[in-house]
Amino acid sequence: MKEVRFRSVAEVAQRLNPSYPVFLVFPDILRARAKAFLEGFPGTVLYAVKCNPDGHVLRALYAAGVRHFDTASLPEIAKINELFPDAHCYFNHPVKARGALESADDVYGIEHYVVDHISELNKVTEMVGTAITVEVRIATPKGHAVYDLSSKFGASHDDAVALLKDAHGRGCRTAIAFHVGSQCPDPLAFRVAMEAAAKIAGAAGVPVEYLDVGGGYPVTYGEAVPPIEAFFDVIRQARRDFALDMPLLAEPGRALAAEGCSVLAQVQLRKGDSLYINDGVYGCLAEIQLGELKPPVRAIAHPAGGGQERLAGPKKTFRLFGPTCDSLDLFKVHFELPEGIGEGDWIEFGSMGAYSIGMQTAFNGFYTDTVVQVDGLHDEFKFGRL
Ligand SMILES: *Cc1c(COP(=O)(O)O)cnc(C)c1O
User: Fold this and answer.
1) Which of 207, 211, 359, 384 is deepest in the core (most CB within 10 A)?
2) Predicted TM-score of the model (pTM)
3) What pLDDT shows up at residue 386?
4) Strand 133-137 to strand 112-115: parallel, antiparallel, or no bridges (unpaired)?
């Protein structure tokens, strides 16, 4: 099968003249991001599939050398297995259905399972036996992450120690995992969590096969965040300071996927400072609202209204409304766009690779199923630090 590749986003707009949202994938950017993480992180890199499960994205990351995947459901495991028979999946959801465990073991031979409670440990060993690695997910303090996960998952110090001893006693291999929360701007959150992990490992006194430091590495959406190397430096230093001599794993999602995709939406109506567009809070742009993120935007002129020069003038602030018929489908965050923008013009939302196409709904009949690939590092519209 010959893959269609476009040379630029302007070419996508020209050739498709899309009145529906288009999800744009930049495989070269995804490969660059994955390579930088694989080279910089002092351990094994698992891509967190939930962040963006699109096949084009997964193939680009695989092409860069990603062979390990953090999966949270049977469909995610199945997808990775079908695409990449030589890849390794880790079943890293702390709450798993019995049926999913059965198939994970029987069909896919999964060997790594996360738990954060004794009932889940009982369930896992009952369903898949003890020839596995039990990763105990530990709680991390509430930090500065945009999405704090500490209130949902994670065992306390004492519970984690008990779980590690118990799993070891049953004959399982044991490991420790944490997640500091997504879009975490503070490298020291990793140090704090690694210190907690070291104390738990010491108190449990069992062999720890690896320490999984999770995801959470941020990308910039307007506000500056520390570069990824700052996170790697803190992790390396903490590993020395707390004598964590077991191998490390990381589970980045956003840091690998975000900058390598855009959403191309079209303006369907303008009313003064309000633009009604064809993607919104129930679509691929959901995270703009959930995380109050402000991705970079640029306008692409519809050819019917003359050339791109029409949009070259000064910018003003617009309110953006999504396509569904309810009053919640408008963005709290406002965007600066050319004064001359109007019906038919497109808006490219950059850095939309994370929690976008995987989170959209089909509410009200609006659903994006057009995914196209664009070659190159997309230098006409600068993303992040590329
Ligand atoms: C969501 C998730 C990730 C990925 O998080 P990012 O913030 O996208 O890096 C990694 N591990 C687990 C367990 C997760 O739930």
Assistant:
1) 211
2) 0.95
3) 36
4) parallel
